[in-house]
Design brief:
binds magnesium ion, binds thiamine diphosphate, 19 helices, six-stranded parallel sheet, alpha/beta
Amino acid sequence: MSNSSPAQVYAATLLASLAKAGVRNYFLAPGARSQALAIAAGQLADAGKINLHVRLDERSLAFNALGAALASGEPSVIITTSGTAVANLHPAVLEANHSGVPLILLTADRPDELRGVGANQTTNQIGIFFDAVREVFDVQAPSGRPTEIAEATKLATDAIGVCMGYDGEQPGPVQLNLAFREPLSAIEPNAATLDPAVALPEIFDPHPEFALLTAAVPTVVVAGAGAGGDAVELAEAFGWPLLAEPSSGSRVGANAILGYRKILEQQPELAGRIGRVIVFGKPTLGRAVIKLLFKPEVEVVVIRSRVMGFFDVSQRATAIVDEITVDDEVDFEWLEAWRKADQSFTHAGANKLDRRSLVEAVWAATEPQDDLILGASRLIREADVWAPAKAVRVYSNRGLAGIDGTVATATGISLLQTGTTRTLMGDLTLLHDASSLAIDPTEPARNIQIIVGNDGGGSIFAGLEMAQSLDSKSFDRLFKTPQSVDIWHLAQAYGWQYVRVETPAELSAALSTAGRILIDVRLD
Ligand SMILES: Cc1ncc(C[n+]2csc(CCOP(=O)(O)OP(=O)(O)O)c2C)c(N)n1
Ligand SMILES: [Mg+2]
């Protein structure tokens, strides 16, 4: 290895600057063009200054990084080589863009003279993510100019500021496209011995906008993904029913109306009295809420979300604000009417193993120190109906609601676990991301449970309009995509424990298993 390389000096300074600024979690997939970055990351990890996770597949790597950023609230750094490696980050980058998750992408590239001339593994990486990244920094190949050290440090702190939304914008991914010229690496300088002069950008704190609302209008608070504690506080402060999705972080407390979907769909008298909806986060799970937002007689007030942007699908919001105050006392009878209606649905669980008892068992097993990740599709909607009001840390990729990357998001979240990481998903969702079951043998053992509601295909489509119009053969081929993959073999191949459960008792035993386990729950 050469002992002098501008590429190495630059890479070492950049990563040492990120580390010194407090960025802890790094995700690397191997490649030649990115070797200086990999070496620097390895040095910092060996010195205990960062956590480095090495994965073989960039698609999975990026969802891992997304999970870690979700769990930590801090940026994850992703290091890749050039070409299709970069493109493989795209699904997770899109999800991060739509759900405000900070990612710093370090994508290695060829220098200018090797772009557009047919050089190997070279494509146009500038703009590859279009508007899904907050900013692209197109960094020319380092050549050893003395100013490059200060530039690398400035780039690190700029990247942190942009991806964290310190400028007042929504957090999200940022791409540093880094060209490197040969020699592509050296052993010196050791990144762990550098001490760059890092100054973080200031955090811009915009002045919150208020809306003053009349108390007399019967109001419900809708909490979608990313809503958090603010929705609960508002509903409780003014005595409004709280219609909270399971991954909203707001499905707690006495105002949560768990059976809200059924009330909206089946109790037109009560639902018809709603005069105002206040929306927090991004509601995505049911048509009933969306329909409500389109009703001409319903006033819509949207609270801006730091991470999910603002949600105004009906384009009828009379106010898009940060906070709300009310002009008078709110009538308590309104909330009582919702509570009463809700009680008719919330009765004791069944003793056979169905989707409802599956959801209830998973919630019962999950304690405040645990993490719960919900895949897209049918089971999160079952949770929207059956999950109790309980302070559980729930995550779900609702930015774009893809079924992809769910295993990797969960294992990424598990990197910061304080208890057990439990994830509930459909069978196609598991199979879509099966390669993310690969375990890095150098990482410490963790408790990860993947609970698969196995109904042999995509059963969510059975509830949609095409199921009514198509014959069953066409429906199965075009939508359900039946599968008969042997999950036991999958578990064996990747080194996970496996249990197949058919009764509630077997399920609750499985939910207290330590280590990594695939729990195959057969549903009809
Ligand atoms: C990446 C991606 N591709 C396709 C879809 C459309 N889609 C939504 S749900 C679903 C089927 C999921 O099946 P499964 O995971 O078995 O869940 P189930 O509904 O059967 O419980 C598909 C293909 C999607 N959301 N994301
Ligand atoms: Mg299924």
